[in-house]
Amino acid sequence: MMNNKECLAYFEKYLVEERNSSANTLSSYLRDIRQLGQYMDEYLPHWLINADESDLLDYIGWMKNYGKSAATVSRCIASIKNFYLMLYQHNLIEVNPAARIVADKIAPKLPQILTNEEVELLLSQPKCVDAKGYRDKAMLELLYATGIRVSELIDLDITDINLNAGVIRCHSRKKERMIPVHAKAVSAVRHYMEKVRPYMIAEPDERSLFVNISGERMTRQGFWKIIKYYQKKADIQKDITPHTLRHSFAAHLLENGADIHAIQQMLGHADLSSTQLYTQVINKQLKDEYNKAHPRA
Questions:
Q1: pLDDT tens, 208-267?
Q2: Measured between alpha carbons, how far is 153 from 241 in angstroms, rounded to an integer?
């Protein structure tokens, strides 16, 4: 019978070799099961492999009593269910003690969005006096104009944008979608492409639309630093990430009457429920404004 250390090693091998899990998933699952093992060492007289359903429910209750967030508990339950399912499927246990355990439903966390004024303030920060300023202006304008993910933004090639038609072609998860681009963003990107980019690229055949100071494709980390720099410069107190502009794009379109299915298509959401989350954002904002402004609220 395997002890806790052997169980963890077996689980790690399974995650790597059979599940091909990412580094983050591997680290998260092993940490959660290691902590379960430590709990059992301290409070229960047996190993992980001997646990029954009541042991696991006791541990989940212990986590809740010690102030673990609902999201943390839910993640731990997922790790536990994967661990014991693996043991069961590999015939290391006769009964899966986690089979009937279900995580509590967690209300989705509403995304943070910027106000229209905050967006304008952020977009006005890049000063078009040098190549970097023109490039940064074009990137921020295009990100807010289209709501694309930062990964999609930096993956754009020069052939993916049609300035005359005012559209970009976006590739995501083996799917392609066309997204309209408003005139201000088209103007910013046009100036960058025609007047700036030719002097920034390292090689004449460089395909990347947006390049770094080395003349190569912009990275996620590079763009993250850019947006943090302009947040600080604008003195906006909200924590702005590249995804904040995507959220703001969707919420502002919805607020101004855009069809939710059109927004879903532009965002590239497979499930409409992901897009409907922005309806909750708008409703919460309306409720907050009501409570602040109504004399009897």
A1: 999 999 999 999 999 999 999 999 999 999 989 888 999 999 989 988 888 999 999 999
A2: 14
Q: In this structure, which amino acid lies at residue 260? A: I
Rounded to two decimals, what is the model's pTM?
A: 0.65
User: For domain 116-293, which architecture applies?
Assistant: Orthogonal Bundle (1.10)
Could you tell me where the beta strands, DSSP code E, fall in 107-184?
161-162, 167-172, 175-180
Q: Which residue shows structure tokens 């409570």?
A: 291
What does 124-193 look like in DSSP terms, one character per residue?
T-S-TTSHHHHHHHHHHHHHHHH---HHHHHH-BGGGEETTTTEEEEEETTEEEEEE--HHHHHHHHHII
Q: What residue ranges of the chain are covered by domains with CATH 1.10.150.130?
A: 4-89
Q: CB count, 10 Å around CB of 245?
A: 27
Q: Which fold has domain 4-89?
A: DNA polymerase; domain 1 (1.10.150)
